What we know:
Elements: E1 6-10, E2 15-20, H1 31-46, E3 52-57, H2 68-75, H3 79-98, E4 103-107, E5 110-112, H4 114-121, E6 124-128, E7 132-134, H5 148-166, E8 170-171, H6 172-178, E9 183-185, H7 190-202, H8 206-219, H9 226-241, H10 243-254
Parallel strand pairs: 2-3, 3-4, 4-6, 5-7, 6-9
Antiparallel strand pairs: 1-2, 7-8
Amino acid sequence: MSTSPLLFEVDANGIATLSLNRPEVGNAFNDQIIHALIDHLKAIENDTSIRCLILRSEGKHFSAGADLNWMKSMAAYDFDHNYQDALVLSKLMDNLYRLNKPTIACVQGAAFGGAIGLIACCDIAVAATDARFCLSEVKLGLCPAVISPYVINAIGPRQASRYFLTAEVFSSQMALNMGLLHEVVDASALSTSALSLASMAAANGPEAMTACKKLIKRVNDDFPDKNLQEDTAKLIARLRVSAEGQEGIGAFFEKRSPQWPLSNQGKSNV
């Protein structure tokens, strides 16, 4: 079995599969994985033989989101370092969202935090019936800043109001109902379902599909704009270095309940 953190293959029909391969940490992603994903997406963008991309993961879980050891190390850096780091994650999300080929997320197990951003950036998402989802950032004194434009675009502000603020776990059926997913299937049929969707897309005109993707984004006001990407990167950078973010991440690693510091609520400049 390969020890590479990312697996990549392309079948005879031009269907590419990009797999997160860190099952020992629930396929959590760090800066190394983010940069590698960006590089792979750039290569896929420029490869005319590739007709469709399936994004999936090895092992039990789709992704636990950001690697908390990486997050812990980032919390020790200053605002500017965190801002530049967050811009790289923003670039990954935007590149996935704007990829010139159809993208399909194939989701099993847990999809937490930033993993929901990856799902929301894909054109189509299918999950196993027992998959679980959570926007857990507020538990750490943070918020799902960089992924928020894509997640809110997928599920709407009303649903985001609940799940951003409660950080509760929700089911595949709920994710389907709110628009994050297109299809929920038995775990044994997950790979087959994703491949079937990819095969349908791969049979279509590649230029026409690229035009469809651009049209959807044009009708949606060329979402998201550059200012929004920069603002969300600044927001998460500020929260990471804040007293609340430091306490939330520290409490997680110390396996205790956070003691949130007193702060001036309502003064968050997004």
